Amino acid sequence: MSKGSANQVPQATYKNAPKLSAILTRAATRMKKSLPSKFSEPRPPLTISSKEDYRPSSISSFLTRLSTFKLATYSNKPPAIDPVAASKCGWVNDGKDRLVCGVCSSSWVLASKEGMSRDAANALIEKQKTQLVDAHKPGCPWRMKQCDASIYRIPLQSPSVLLRDIKANATSFDSLLDDVEIKHPLTSNQLTSLQSTIKLYTLSLSATVSPTQTEPPSSSTPSAISEEPSEKTILVSLFGWSLAPAAERPALTRGSTWAPQMPPRSRESSVVPRQSPNWLSVGLSTTLAPLKRDSDTLLQCSLCQRRIGLWTFGLRPESSTSSRAPTQRSFDLLKEHRSYCPYVVRSTVIPTLSPQTHLMRQTNLVGGSEGALEGWRAVVTVVLRYGMAQRSHLTSGRRPSETHEAGEGEREVVDGGIEAMVEGVKARGGKDLLKYVRGLLG
């Protein structure tokens, strides 16, 4: 019997056995209907050019990939394979533990380590860490070069610019946080220094606007001090929280996923990622008009994509049969960030002064973590640096307005403050400086 006739046997059999053909057809139909039920309902795919997706040095592109990782689809991962590590290697999250490359269209699912011994789980994690690079198709640029280790950090500005952005963001909260209880890791000495620095910054601005005014404004004189944001709003802004724009406040639903435009697959992607934030000191420069608090007011961190509703921190009345007072959940400014957020992990290097140019510059170190601090510590350090410089100028007989100039004046704030501080130490000894530094460190 020839090969051709052998291939025709099943077709002839089906013609002679119509019942068998009907059974097979029904079975195939049932299988097709059952497959979609295991996954979420299909959603319109996101349209984004995959050709533009390979930008390993682009912070906005990195944050776009990071925004696709949801708690419902990618959680409980060690740092070696967490959302930050995967995003640095060019992956987006599309489904439960599923990673997709928008450049080479490669995809794979991370196996669970549930039920494994510790050694077996560690071996699996090491293999998956290697796969973050090797799982890309041959020729994919992500196999050759990934994002720099220091791409996910807080890009600190000069002290006065950072203070300006913090205050502008704090003003947008208005009275939204009046009945919200907050928690933070700052010591009382740090809080006192922060309050003093804010006052010095406000005084410096007033002196800049009115250069002929040599005395501080009296309490009876209308001034910007009465309109200053509260300590609570300053702290919320200091730790990287800002109001989510109204257009980004949809009804809270189960976390969903996203994938770049690529060849059709059996499953479609879902959520469009939020627009990449302006790269201020991310999360601090969002300047919004004050809003009236309502039931859908959201705070967000533009770095870790964490969003949280203010209504969760309101008073919770007890049942009518309970004699206890209503309870209230505190807003922990640090712990509400995701575990991999730069505000939480040691990822930010404090800018140094170049002896040649006297410019503040961000130190880029190989490995990206040597000498790094938690983001919130770095922000506090830079902010208090402004206060230290201003106090030094005041004690040396200089007006704050002389150091609050754009460009060249901003560099003189820090550099001149260090010079004055050194002269003061020589004249009075180092005890005062040592006491001040100990206070900052808690």
From TrEMBL:
Residues 209-227 have a biased composition (Low complexity). Residues 57-172 form the C3HC-type domain. It comes from the Eukaryota. Residues 294-347 form the NuBaID C-terminal domain. Residues 399-412 have a biased composition (Basic and acidic residues). It is found in: Nucleus. One of its GO terms (cellular component) is nucleus. GO terms for molecular function: zinc ion binding. Pfam families: NuBaID_C, zf-C3HC. Keywords: Metal-binding, Nucleus, Zinc, Zinc-finger. InterPro entries: NuBaID_C, NuBaID_N. Residues 33-52, 209-229, 252-274, 393-412 are annotated as: Disordered. This is Zf-C3HC-domain-containing protein. It comes from Guyanagaster necrorhizus.
